[in-house]
């Protein structure tokens, strides 16, 4: 939105947009038509861009789309059991999900990345034996690298569990134990915290 009255949807991100946005550093300008020039671009990418006859530039709108995609992939999370996988492989919202207990809600292992699993495929058969294939089909937060990239806190006298990402500062996830209420929101600069390994 340019006037906060009329809103339009962003188009889906492409892999090329994400790759271009990862090369940019610094904060957003606030103007969707602003064009960034690549100052630090490797020779291979520069050669490919100049072959196409294009100036190496990316618009802020494309960077915003790619950044939202990166945040969703890296820190978009759900509580365990909120979605189920059928024997045929389709994933659906679990209508029987009534929330995590307070004890479970305080554990990182009770939350999953809501994206295609990566670490799950690398587990041994012995590690997979304890998992329920209908609910444990995504990657758990407890195995995120670097360790300690999530904080778990209790708010409102222990009635709300809040998870915050230290990798994407400004990402806050909440879950009200014993209810279906959960979600996340991002209020940040749009920059990944690359200093995180040195901060832990």
TrEMBL record:
Keywords: Cell projection, Cilium, Cilium biogenesis/degradation, Cytoplasm, Cytoskeleton, Flagellum. GO terms for biological process: axoneme assembly; cilium movement involved in cell motility; motile cilium assembly. It is found in: Cell projection, Kinocilium; Cytoplasm, Cytoskeleton, Flagellum axoneme. It comes from the Eukaryota. One of its GO terms (cellular component) is kinocilium. Its main location: other. The keyword Cytoplasm applies. Belongs to the flagellar radial spoke RSP9 family. PANTHER family: MITOCHONDRIAL RIBOSOMAL PROTEIN S18, RADIAL SPOKE HEAD PROTEIN 9 HOMOLOG. This is Radial spoke head protein 9 homolog. It comes from Gavia stellata (Red-throated diver). The lineage of its organism: Eukaryota, Metazoa, Chordata, Craniata, Vertebrata.
